[in-house]
Design goal:
With 314 residues, the protein is α/β, with parallel strands linked by helices. The protein has one domain: TIM Barrel. 48% of the residues lie in helices and 16% in strands. The chain is built from 12 helices and 12 strands. Strands 1-2-3-5-8-9-10-12 form an 8-stranded parallel beta barrel, surrounded by 7 helices. It has a two-stranded antiparallel sheet with strand order 6-7. Helix 2 packs across helix 3 and helix 6 runs parallel beside helix 7. GO terms for molecular function: oxidoreductase activity, acting on paired donors, with incorporation or reduction of molecular oxygen. This is F420-dependent oxidoreductase-like protein.
Length: 314
């Protein structure tokens, strides 16, 4: 598994553009030209990240596309499997499905119901999803998920099997991810905490389940910039939400900092390159920079150029 560097596109930035899909394609083309290997799309309540990823992968040859991440609440394994396989067929095998538990407050407000037993729901969701992706069939009846396809659920051309990553950070979610998924997508975790609290338990779970060594896609907020004052102010505003979510509070504390903004990588090319190296040394197989639009378009171009150089240097 070689070193891979990518960028995450901001859902909010896409929605502020004239056309979210056109903007995603244009940004992915620019990222590919800069030399990065992958582009990731987050899911909010506006455009559909899976659909946009399929279009981007179709329009931009060679680049890997993925979701970072699609929350499980409000979704069903049969429908997500259908979307993911369709994206895989559309991109000729360059799609990766990233899933997450979602935030309790947002999920309950949007979909109703309760956010009970999220780790159990993720395990059952993955079990059903894995069956569909691997065999084209499913007959799963769990405590929180039922998935029984009355006819074949495979999508022609969706080969190889869609890789599934989970934004898992707690022990139970990591165990389920190691046993049932292909890797993880941690966000706002420092390199040392990544090595000890994500990579180590994930690899152990995968090994015990006789699964291949998992992929670790470290999502890292950061930007190459000369204006550190403005960048820190923007970082504080853009990450404050995560300071309110218990799962993020835990990994932020384990990373040895007080708040999410302290994990945003800011500085010149040398500073950012050193931090990228730290994440790979900690066990990341991929480093994906998010929030590269924190400051100015010029800073974003500098950031993508640096990441492309690091990718080419390998």
């Amino acid at each position: 598994m070689g070193m891979s560097i990518g960028i995450a596109l901001s859902p909010l930035a896409l929605d502020r553009s004239g056309n979210a899909v056109d903007a995603a394609v244009a940004q992915a083309r620019a990222a590919a030209e800069a030399g990065v290997q992958s582009v990731w799309l987050g899911q909010t309540f506006s455009h559909d990240a899976l659909l946009v990823a399929a279009i981007v992968g179709r329009e931009v040859p060679g680049i890997e596309v993925g979701t970072s991440v699609v929350p499980v609440p409000g979704r069903h394994p049969l429908l997500v499997a259908s979307q993911a396989q369709t994206a895989q067929a559309a991109t000729g095998g360059r799609f990766t499905l990233g899933l997450g538990l979602g935030a309790r407050e947002l999920s309950e407000r949007a979909f109703g119901g309760t956010f009970d037993r999220p780790a159990t729901r993720m395990r059952e969701f993955l079990t059903a999803l894995r069956s569909i992706l691997d065999t084209g069939e499913v007959d799963f009846h769990g405590e929180t998920v039922t998935a029984a396809a009355p006819m074949p659920a495979a999508v022609a051309g969706a080969k190889p099997t869609v890789p599934v990553l989970v934004a898992a950070m707690g022990p139970q979610a990591l165990r389920a991810t190691g046993e049932l998924a292909d890797g993880t997508l941690p966000f706002l975790v420092g390199p040392d905490a990544l090595a000890e609290h994500i990579v180590e338990p994930l690899r152990a779970a995968a090994k015990s389940a006789d699964r291949p060594r998992p992929r670790v896609v470290a999502l890292v907020p950061g930007v190459v910039t000369s204006d550190l004052t403005a960048a820190r102010t923007a970082a504080e505003a853009n990450t404050a939400f995560y300071d309110t979510i218990p799962s993020y509070q835990r990994v932020i504390a384990l990373s040895g900092v007080d708040r999410a903004a302290d994990l945003v990588v800011l500085g010149d090319e040398e500073t950012v390159a050193a931090r990228v190296a730290d994440y790979f040394a900690a066990g990341a197989t991929d480093v994906v920079f998010s929030q590269t639009d924190l400051t100015t378009p010029e800073d974003q171009r500098r950031t993508w150029a640096l990441l492309g150089e690091l990718q080419r240097a390998g």
